[in-house]
């Protein structure tokens, strides 16, 4: 948030409600006197939120460690009353026992399946039976069986993934009594039998291996023994069995699989291990009790975060120590808050009749390890489990995965219901003398008209989507070397996206910070053009000039001067002198460090040098960064135990365990990568987001080593909680202030080649409320031995805590900060304060007392922090850039051209977000920018009402704006103002009105919940297809709220990717995913469904025309074998080929002309009108076919094979042949891109039909005995077939010609352009061949096609 002073300077004096973000940015301010009645123009939508997290009924808990439970916590049998959930995670739907009933229930929830089940039952009633019961059930059983096989295969993969994670191994304490569970585990007979079999199998395997080892003399090698020991350990059946809760020897740490970890268990975690459950840290390998964890699978950040144990349990160093620790833990209930935890660990002495409390120590989130944390930079950690399974914080955060259906599927179900109505209406034309006869005739008619509904449509759609997913997965244009994306669950909604909601950091930007500039003591450094223009500056150039202007900078001279000045101050040991690694190179800073009199006046020379030294000393000391020396070896996932006193985990076994763990992880990774390639994987892992993400992040096969700077003699690798901190510490290092190492109480810094150790007295941590971080340190004696407070944070927070008398410096620094913000840079303000020893000691005593308080602890500590973080001396400010990803501007520009409205939801400052918006082409100079800043609720609503009244006319359209003009409006709103609007029902309705007008929207300073609420508001209120894209766990709720969720699976963890419907590696791939694959798949699915209904209409309606001549007696017209095989065999492959492989136009033209995509937004290819057209066309063609054959066979003297006049059997067989041939050819007519596959399908279906009629007609028992030879030998049949094909298809051909020639849409125009350019290339190629007899014109293929301008239609 901007501070109040700067806010006032931006206020427009004519209207204080609006403020301009920066100079030269047009903000349109209109004010009308309209009321608030516009919200009624749209049909009021239900805007209530249904977003919710997983819930648990668990309450506060008390976990006992080596202490007997009080009597009130025991049941009558003396066992614990409280039952804790298992650590087993289950995401599968079925078990072998429940699969058949549950899957059948799922399948027959579909109306179509229930309809055909009813038809099958009616067909088996003897009075109504029209054919063999086997043939009646054949279509339904086939579709049900195929669907069940598909579901079984998917659930098998779910089970496999569940087993892979639930069977991951970790170390826990064995031979100790976990008092929180029954003393003995009762097993059923079958479970006991299974355990016995496992033990016998394991024993036989071990004996076999032992015999082999004794016979093999070469196996005496130590390495071989280690390998065999590891194999035996991994195959030990005891690992797979639940803990017995019995003591059979001394306590020892042994392997256990994750699903057997219990509440109250001791865990032993090594460097690189994943945490299997939420656990309280007891001790670590560090003397101070610290450890570091990687959290990218929770929050999307790759940075390390510190955790610590309480001082009273640091003595726990061995398995024996664990067995002697007596305490209990009072914990809050399981909840989804990842950033807060409250509990107490109470140390106690056991007595004969209970225990005696010694001490109570409070616990917070820094003492808690969460499931999916990865231990880093710490040799080992001992912890006690507090939450397991679905009660862990990460599982409670995963939320209930919504069930999503595409828009076309919903519309298709409605059309299927209408078709049901048509089928029933066809039966109301019969009149029978009795009610029973009428009922029987009605039921028989239902059977013969049942095929108007395509039973195989649902399974065909699943098959086509899988086929389409295969093409996407194998698209090399969407492949990324650094991070492969392989989760695909393709939907036709990809071609109908109207709104895209995107995160910024890590999604649009790289989340790689670059130190660009700084302001120290009122002087600006880094403004010499060394790092080039920022993305925001490029956006500003586009805004003002329409193009990006180059910076005229002599880089060689700048760097040479920088290198010379650097060496005058110190000899680089840790600093880089490679220009490719430097984003900041300003020689002025070194001149000022040496107090060069030529650079500034003598009076402030020493003061400026002091400012610079304090500035970079603060950057090198005030942080939470961890340093690792850079080595050429790849990191090891395993660790080694520091002491041999851990029972049964000595050094040799540790190597074994490390090797076996790596082998297990490697094999697990291979299995997961193999399974993840399936197109339906994102559905398989919906409930497994946390653990799946954990494994993917912690078991990379080949960690990529960071690039090594060869100019640095002693390279350092910094691991930070945020990339900003790493960038700042690296910048200080390159300027001679190198952070070397840290302990709990000290930080060592190399300053100009000399090493100094600062004693860390207190760390006042950063949080979203404080918006600052401070460290209180004692300088080394060489630097004064005084106590100093270093503070860094947001400018609005730091400036208000400054001492008096710095007005000039504050004003100059504020100007620099404003300039940084306008350039799209992230700013941080730095200040310090030298503390009096007596004042500090008094404050420290109060702070210690507050930190030990049991009530209002955090409030007391914050108040004391406020007291000491005052009277600060301003040093300056830093400026860091988070650069855009490759191809982001082009992607957003193409999406906007395609008619997609792009909304960016970010936590950045308003000014920064606007500048990034221009750089990313989200905002353009043609747009009119409307801004609403945070104010009191009434003021925000008044501002927004004025915006709406200025834009929306009396009839709900933009005032005096046409459709093209309305696309030039953009809206920017602050998160605080957005919260006020979302809380007001009338404001939400008006947001829906304006969402159609605004082509781009930027929401700043928004929370994850606000992101989800905005997406849900637009999705439900506008009835639009929405897409959300993000890269972190904080984007999961937004991703799940949208119709389509896309996760960026890259270097920021995989939680967003696992929660999403689709996963890509970079934002730029979204362009191809939507404009190419989305368009193709929308066209394919639309045409496939329409052709499916069409071919059933042309098949069923001849039966109706026949009923006219049989007095609606429900006599069967087709032979039943044709009825059953029509959809399953005779007409299935062409529509599948159409749905799986058709291309309306090639990918290059879809990327070149994004406007083609808009036909999906406008639903031009699947709507009620087109459905009616296909339906009516099917009726017309059925009329042509039926009456053509009626005229041939029943109105003429055609003779049958037995010498009599031809009858209904000959006619119906001829109708079948005509219908099948026309239906297949019609699919071909509707195909845009003919391939050999489509030719093969159409010709193959026709040949299969001919062969079936001939072969089936050979047998005397066949209803069509001899019909095939007779029909194929008559010229009248071939004449009727030719006439029927031409006359039936003539209306569609004429309509298609007129439409494409006189009323072309965007797709027709682009196809014509493609054809024209192809002819021009061929013409140039032919001329080149004529000029050069050797075929010299062949190179013309590589020329870019000449594209004529498209005139506005």
Architecture overview:
- Pfam families: Cation_ATPase, PhoLip_ATPase_C, PhoLip_ATPase_N.
- It is found in: Endomembrane system; Membrane.
- It is a multi-pass membrane protein.
- One of its GO terms (biological process) is phospholipid translocation.
- The strands form six sheets. A nine-stranded antiparallel sheet has the order 16-15-25-24-23-22-21-20-19, sandwiched between helices. Strands 27-28-29-26-14-30-31-32 form an eight-stranded parallel sheet, sandwiched between helices.
- The protein contains 45 helices and 32 strands.
- By secondary structure, the protein is α+β, with helices and mostly antiparallel strands.
Supply database-style keywords.
nine-stranded antiparallel beta sheet, eight-stranded parallel beta sheet, 32 strands, disordered N terminus, translocase, EC 7.6.2.1
């Amino acid at each position: 948030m901007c501070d109040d002073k700067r806010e006032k300077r931006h206020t427009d004096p004519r209207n204080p409600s609006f403020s301009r973000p920066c100079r030269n940015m047009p903000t349109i301010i209109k004010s009308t006197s309209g009321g608030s009645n516009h919200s009624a123009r749209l049909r009021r939508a239900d805007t209530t939120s249904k977003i919710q997290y997983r819930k648990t009924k668990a309450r506060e808990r008390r976990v006992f460690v080596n202490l007997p439970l009080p009597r009130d916590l025991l049941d009558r049998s003396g066992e614990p009353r409280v039952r804790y959930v298992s650590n087993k995670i289950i995401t599968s739907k079925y078990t072998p026992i429940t699969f058949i009933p549950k899957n059948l229930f799922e399948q027959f929830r579909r109306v179509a399946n229930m309809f055909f089940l009813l038809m099958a039952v009616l067909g088996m009633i003897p009075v109504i039976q029209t054919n063999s019961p086997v043939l009646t059930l054949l279509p339904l059983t086939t579709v049900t069986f195929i669907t069940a096989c598909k579901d079984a295969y998917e659930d098998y993969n779910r089970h496999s993934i569940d087993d892979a994670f639930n069977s991951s191994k970790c170390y826990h304490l064995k031979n100790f009594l976990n008092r929180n569970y029954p003393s003995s585990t009762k097993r059923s007979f079958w479970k006991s039998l299974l355990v016995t079999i496992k033990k016998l199998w394991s024993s036989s395997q071990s004996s076999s291996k032992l015999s082999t080892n004794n016979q093999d003399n070469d196996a005496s090698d130590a390495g071989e023994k280690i390998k065999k020991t590891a194999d035996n350990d991994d195959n030990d059946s005891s690992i797979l069995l639940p803990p017995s809760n019995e003591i059979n020897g001394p306590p020892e740490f042994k392997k256990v699989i994750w699903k057997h970890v219990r509440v109250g268990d001791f865990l032993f975690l090594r460097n690189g291990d994943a945490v299997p459950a939420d656990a309280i840290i007891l001790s670590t390998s560090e003397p101070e009790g610290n450890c570091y964890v990687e959290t990218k699978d929770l929050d999307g950040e790759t940075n390390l975060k510190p955790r610590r144990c309480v001082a009273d349990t640091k003595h726990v160093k061995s398995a024996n120590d664990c067995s002697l620790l007596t305490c209990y833990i009072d914990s809050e209930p399981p909840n989804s808050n990842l950033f807060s935890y409250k509990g107490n660990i109470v140390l106690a002495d056991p007595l004969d009749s209970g225990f005696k409390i010694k001490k109570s120590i409070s616990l917070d989130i820094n003492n808690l390890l969460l499931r999916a944390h990865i231990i880093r930079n710490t040799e080992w950690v001992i912890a006690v489990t507090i939450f397991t399974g679905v009660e862990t914080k990460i599982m409670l955060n995963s939320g209930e995965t919504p069930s999503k259906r595409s828009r076309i599927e919903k519309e298709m179900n409605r059309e299927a219901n209408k078709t049901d109505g048509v089928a029933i209406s066809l039966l109301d034309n019969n009149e029978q003398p009795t009610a029973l006869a009428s009922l029987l005739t009605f039921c028989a008619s239902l059977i013969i008209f049942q095929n108007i509904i395509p039973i195989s449509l649902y399974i065909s759609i699943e098959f086509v989507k899988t086929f389409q997913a295969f093409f996407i997965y194998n698209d090399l244009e969407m492949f990324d070397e650094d991070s492969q994306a392989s989760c695909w669950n393709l939907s036709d909604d990809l071609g109908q996206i109207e709104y895209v909601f995107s995160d910024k950091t890590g999604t649009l930007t790289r989340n790689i910070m670059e130190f660009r500039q700084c302001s120290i003591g009122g002087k600006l450094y880094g403004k010499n053009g060394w790092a080039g223009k920022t993305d925001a500056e490029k956006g500003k150039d586009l805004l003002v000039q329409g193009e990006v202007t180059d910076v005229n900078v002599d880089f060689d001279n700048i760097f040479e001067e920088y290198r010379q000045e650097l060496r005058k101050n110190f000899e680089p040991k840790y600093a880089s002198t490679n220009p490719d690694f430097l984003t900041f190179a300003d020689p002025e800073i070194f001149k000022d460090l040496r107090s060069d009199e030529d650079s500034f006046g003598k009076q402030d020379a020493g003061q400026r040098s002091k400012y610079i030294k304090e500035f970079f000393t603060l950057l090198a000391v005030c942080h939470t960064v961890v340093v690792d020396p850079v080595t050429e070896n790849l990191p090891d996932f395993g660790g080694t135990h520091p002491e041999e006193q851990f029972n049964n985990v000595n050094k040799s076994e540790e190597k074994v365990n490390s090797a076996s763990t790596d082998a297990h992880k490697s094999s697990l990774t291979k299995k997961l990568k193999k399974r993840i390639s399936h197109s339906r994987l994102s559905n398989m892992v919906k409930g497994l987001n946390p653990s799946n993400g954990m494994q993917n992040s912690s078991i990379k096969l080949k960690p990529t080593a960071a690039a090594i700077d060869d100019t640095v003699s002693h390279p350092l690798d910094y691991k930070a909680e945020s990339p900003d901190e790493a960038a700042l510490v690296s910048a200080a290092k390159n300027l001679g202030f190198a952070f070397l190492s840290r302990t709990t109480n000290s930080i060592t810094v190399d300053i100009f080649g000399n090493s100094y150790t600062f004693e860390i007295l207190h760390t006042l941590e950063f949080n979203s409320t404080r918006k600052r971080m401070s460290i209180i340190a004692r300088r080394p004696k060489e630097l004064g031995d005084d106590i100093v407070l270093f503070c860094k944070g947001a400018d609005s927070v730091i400036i208000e805590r400054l001492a008096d008398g710095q007005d000039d410096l504050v004003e100059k620094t504020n100007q620099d900060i404003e300039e940084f913000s306008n350039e799209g840079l992230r700013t941080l303000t730095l200040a310090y304060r030298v503390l009096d020893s007596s004042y500090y000691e008094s404050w420290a005593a109060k702070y210690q007392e507050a930190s030990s308080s049991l009530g209002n602890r955090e409030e007391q500590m914050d108040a004391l922090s406020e007291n000491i973080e005052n009277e600060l001396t301003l040093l300056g400010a830093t400026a860091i850039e988070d650069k855009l990803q490759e191809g982001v501007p082009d992607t957003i520009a193409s999406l906007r051209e395609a008619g997609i409205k792009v909304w960016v939801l970010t936590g950045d400052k308003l000014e920064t977000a606007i500048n990034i918006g221009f750089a990313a082409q989200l905002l353009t100079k043609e747009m009119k920018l409307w801004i609403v800043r945070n104010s009191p609720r009434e003021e925000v609503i008044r501002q927004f009402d004025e915006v709406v009244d200025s834009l929306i006319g009396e009839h709900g359209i933009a005032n005096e704006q046409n459709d093209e003009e309305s696309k030039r409006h953009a809206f920017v709103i602050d998160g605080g103002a957005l919260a006020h609007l979302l809380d007001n029902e009338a404001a939400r309705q008006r947001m829906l009105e304006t969402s159609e007008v605004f082509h781009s929207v930027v929401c700043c300073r928004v929370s994850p919940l606000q992101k989800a609420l905005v997406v849900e508001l637009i999705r439900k209120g506008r009835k639009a297809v929405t897409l959300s894209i993000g890269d972190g766990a904080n984007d999961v709720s937004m991703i799940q709220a949208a119709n389509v969720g896309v996760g960026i699976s890259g270097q920021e963890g995989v939680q967003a990717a696992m929660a999403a419907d689709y996963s890509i590696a970079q934002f730029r791939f979204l362009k191809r995913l939507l404009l190419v694959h989305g368009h193709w798949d929308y066209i394919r699915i639309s045409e496939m469904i329409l052709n499916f209904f069409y071919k059933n209409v042309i098949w069923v309606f001849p039966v109706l025309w026949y009923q006219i001549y049989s007095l609606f007696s429900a006599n069967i017209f087709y032979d039943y074998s044709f009825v059953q095989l029509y959809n399953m065999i005779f007409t299935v492959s062409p529509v599948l080929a159409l749905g799986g492989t058709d291309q309306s136009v090639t990918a290059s033209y879809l990327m070149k002309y994004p406007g083609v995509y808009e036909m999906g937004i406008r639903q031009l290819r699947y709507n009620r009108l087109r459905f009616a057209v296909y339906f009516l066309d099917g009726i017309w063609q059925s009329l042509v076919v039926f009456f053509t054959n009626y005229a041939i066979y029943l109105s003429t003297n055609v003779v049958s094979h037995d010498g009599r006049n031809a009858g209904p059997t000959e006619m119906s067989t001829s109708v079948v042949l005509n219908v099948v041939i026309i239906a297949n050819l019609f699919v071909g007519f509707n195909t845009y891109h003919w391939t050999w596959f489509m030719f093969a399908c159409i010709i193959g279906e026709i040949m299969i039909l001919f062969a079936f009629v001939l072969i089936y007609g050979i047998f005397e028992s066949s209803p069509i005995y001899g019909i095939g030879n007779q029909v194929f030998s008559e010229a009248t049949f071939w004449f009727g077939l030719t006439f029927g094909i031409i006359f039936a298809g003539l209306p569609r051909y004429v309509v298609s010609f007129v439409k494409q020639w006189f009323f072309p849409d965007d797709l027709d125009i682009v196809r014509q352009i493609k054809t024209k350019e192809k002819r021009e290339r061929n013409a140039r190629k032919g001329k080149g061949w004529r000029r050069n007899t050797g075929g010299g014109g062949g190179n013309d293929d590589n020329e870019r096609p000449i594209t004529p301008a498209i005139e506005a239609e």
